[in-house]
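Fold these two proteins, one after the other.
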Amino acid sequence: MGGPIPEPFSSWRARAASYCDGREGEGGKVQRIRLSKQETTLRVSLKGENIGMDLKEWCLMGLSRVLNQNRSTTFSSTGEERYWQFKFNVRDVIRETISEDEMNSSLILFFTVLFPAFLRSAARCEGYSQIACNAEKELIDELLRYNITSSPNEFFLKVFERCFVAPLSLEGPSLDLGIGSGDASAFIFKDKQLSVGSDPSIELVLKARNFNFYERYAAIDMTCIPFPDKSFRSVLALNSFYHTQDKKTALREMARVLAPGGVLVFNDVSQMRDFRTYPDLLNRFGFKTLKQDSDEFRFSLNGKSDSFTDAAWIQDELRDLGFERVDSVPFYSEPLAQIGEFFLDFQGIFTINAPAFFEFPNSERFLKAWKKFLHEVVAPMLVQDESFCRETGKSGYLMFHAVKSGEPLPTNPKPDFVCPQCKTLLTKTNSLSSCEKCILDYPIIQEIPLLIPFYAEAYSRA
């Protein structure tokens, strides 16, 4: 898969040892959202395009929460809407028998003690205790200290990402596309300095800014990056590239803003869709409609592009874009992915987050049990991940590392923002970044520029 594995992606485990330490309204209606005390508003148009709750809709919903405004969830897909209703029904049915507090206590017990106990016992039977994995345990313990409240699936991925990125020299200026809430950036990029942190969601960018890891922040879509050509020496898109609905354009844009000799690092999904136990259970139980609905719901925010990604296609695209060296590594083997996806799917049903349980009073014993699960089950699986992927020829993800051809050029240490559409320089005021050529105003919320066309389309002066 992607040919031989050259340095710096030769053995991620060797690097681990070195770097331890309900639907309302109709389409087409307009909602006005007050931006500030000034007479400025956002106008959000719901056109009812047949793409479900896509990235645009999700980001606009986040913006409405930032501005303390209500925005109805809309679904053009009947399956997605039906699955939302199923999730609400599950909790309603449980409440018929036990209280909300009893339900939460039961969920804590199941996700942090009972199911992990089953996996720990199975791991002992398989001889996992004989596998040397001290380096992996240290990485897990370090990540736990960051108090990251993501799903186990994402927790596992962050360990992989740290090991892939750690040996790389990420020269500045650098651009990180898709930082999410930013709670793991300091762990993944330990001892590195990154220039620009971005995400399409202003809601997530504001959360990420609280960690103060990047020099600058902006709301950016990787298919229309608002920077001039050859602006960065390093461009990263970890756990975000597969969210785009136009991968070809995203690759072209990342290549455009990367200077000659610069480094591009990103990952994409591979056979992850085949590694989900939950839909298979629904199908085996005879709930075929619900199985299809769960697939629509689960992948709606992933750009509906979670089918198998061919490493050769991405490598060919990057070479056509001027990259002289393109390496790819399969990771996240089926056994580990099955566990991560099981947690993710069932937590999604109950709208919970297992690590968040550790914020409850008297939760030390649950954290202790959870840590034992990570040490006894996950750490040995991390050790075996590379061999599992190689033996089966399958992986949940592919990591790419590419170097752009050409002699390194001097770069502006602080690149200026440009219009994401026409690439001309923007004129900035206190509340707007304006493009005179396109006649578009991009709003600035709490000093964060929202440099995506759909934010500009949503904006209008009162």
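Now the second one:
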Amino acid sequence: MRPFTLPRKLIEEASHDVGRGGSVRCFDDQFEAPPEWRARLAASAPVDAAWLVERIATAENNQARSRLAMFAFAQRVFVDAQAEADPAELLHALRLFGRYRALALTLERMGLREPALYAAAAIHAQRIEEAGHGEHGRATLALFQGALSIVERAVAAGSLAFSRMRTMCPLMLPGALAAVGASV
């Protein structure tokens, strides 16, 4: 069995902004929380592994499955996240999984592990959805996800080199190039 190895910085960030009285921000569908909610959480005890397991195990079945899948995603993708990785980017990446799961799994299949890329994808997907207002936003989001899937399949088929894909992806995600800097 794989040990509990969620990136330390993610647990630290969760401990600062979330306590035992509330829900981890990555489990929240909202990108911004109301000030009174943040104040209540700031006064509560820090998050630890036991608390996280309790939040997953005591949730309603579908929500528990979703939270467990998100935790497993974090274990697979960000276990080796750099110590200097921005905790906010890690949380955005986990929210990406919660809200735009197909997009997050496509990035994972592509072999991308930089939290900044996942954060940029989350922000871009949210902007697409908000700008489209309903059905148009969902269709535009599907086109964006489809474009990334085509790139992913081209790499899997050997038609596109992994190194070339690593330079293309940040160009498809506004803000990602600056976020990941010279690492791409």
